Structures are given as C-alpha cells and as structure tokens.
Fold this protein.
Amino acid sequence: MEDYIVRGLAFNDEVRFFAAYTKNICEESRNIHETSPICTAALGRLLTAGAMMGSMCKNDTDLITIQIKGDGPAKGLTVTADASANVKGIIYNPIVTLPANEAKHLNVGGAIGHGSLSVIKDIGMKDPYVGQTQLVSGEIAEDLTYYFAVSEQIPTSVGLGVLMTKENTVEHAGGFIIQLLPFASSETVNLLEERLGKVKSVTDFFKEGKSVEEMMKEILGDDMRIEDKIPTQYKCNCSRERVKKALISIGKKEIESMVEEGNPVTLNCDFCNTEYTFSIDELKGILAE
C-alpha cells in the first residue's frame, strides 16, 4: 500500500482532521538510519506527525520543523516537512534498547525522557514562528496534543503508531490529528471526547485490515467527509550545491586548512546518508570564488 494522507471534516464541519498511512516512510527511515525498534517507532511517529503537519501548510514554499530534545538515551529527534507532505528526519542516537513499558509496548517515552518539543514554521516571513512546550510523556502523540493546546490554543487529539514485525521491520504505521474548529458546540466536544475515549491504538485499525478512511469513519462517525487525498513520502532535498554552500559557511581559513592537508573532503547528509566528496581542485575553486 502506498503512503498517503487524507484531510476532511466531520460533526457538521465543526471538526477537521488529518490522517495518514506511513509504513513506507517509516521503513525507509529505518533503513537509512539503521535504527533499533524503539528508535524506529520514535522517529516513525514524529515523521508521521510531521507529514500531516506539513500538509496543513497554506503556501507551497512553507516548511515545518519539529524538534524534540530529551534527557533519555535517544537524546532527541528532528523532522522537517514541506507543504507537499515530503518529510525527512533524524534521531540523534539510533540504537536504544530498553525493556517494554507498563503497557508492554516499545518504551518510546523512556528512550526520549524529559525535555522539550519545538515547532518551527517557516512561512515566508522575516523570522520563522517558533512554538515550544515541555514534553509531557515522551510518547510524542501526547506531547503534540499538549503543544497544540498550549502553544496554538487549538483543542487537538493526536494519535500515532508504528507496528514492528518479529524481524524488526515496519509492518504498519500511521496516525491522525483531529482538531476542534472555533465554532464547535459543546455537544460536539462531548461526543468527540466519547468517541476518542474508545480508541485504543492507531495500529489496531491497520492490524484489522482497515484503511485510513475506514479508521476515521469508525472514530468520527458516518458524517465524516474526505476533502482531499495526497501522497506522502520520505524525501531529502539535499544536493551537491546545498552541501557546497554549507562547506563555504565554515569559512575561508578552514577550507585553506583542508587544501593544505591535501586530502579530498567528504560531507555526509544526516537525513539521507548521501555522501558528497570535494576534491582538492574543487576546494581551491571554492576559495577562488
């Protein structure tokens, strides 16, 4: 099944939602970063959320970055997404092994620990918008729910899940973001809370063979309406030219030192592990520029 995101409305258009299936994104991320199961789940959850939040952007050039910094062994994560739901991410320590949590699930919260969550929105203004909140559990979905409520003042429910196989590959992954619109009635609020209280796990729907659309219909009811469906993918926008600019930014003295050492310089993209090698002649050309 291809990865995709649906966007729609429910409860007489008083609620908007985003829902995604992201198995391929999470599996590609696992392959790139060679993550342990806990880290695959952690990064997969944030990638899923990032893709959906990217699809919320209004302008084609908008970018959104989500950063988590924690005191747990995973140390932190960064995910970046654009308005076309292209997403990429890194986890600072990709190999973490911990016992299962009390619910007998992968202990993502233990891997991340206590810390902060930041959302940076580059929407073409002089300075990007930055919102930051403390982590409430490290489980990511709860932390994003808290972020939307506190930083953006939007009552939101976030559900995220990554299901691993016995071979430690990704079997299913996806999630949802459900938000109350400003004019939502108290009746809608109560009914939505009741329905969300019955949701145990995002991956339960996928294990039962349900699609994203069927998951949202079961959560929100028959008046749920899909407005849009878009593809989403793991995609890094690095290029030789972008890496060259990063090399220039380290300064003339550093590049001169590299030339004096007489060895080619190889730079690696953290998001996709692509290597870019610059020869001595290329370094001299950069100095000449």
Summary: The CA atoms of residues 63 and 82 lie 5 Å apart. The chain has a mean pLDDT of 94. The chain has ten helices and 13 strands. The longest helix spans residues 37-54.
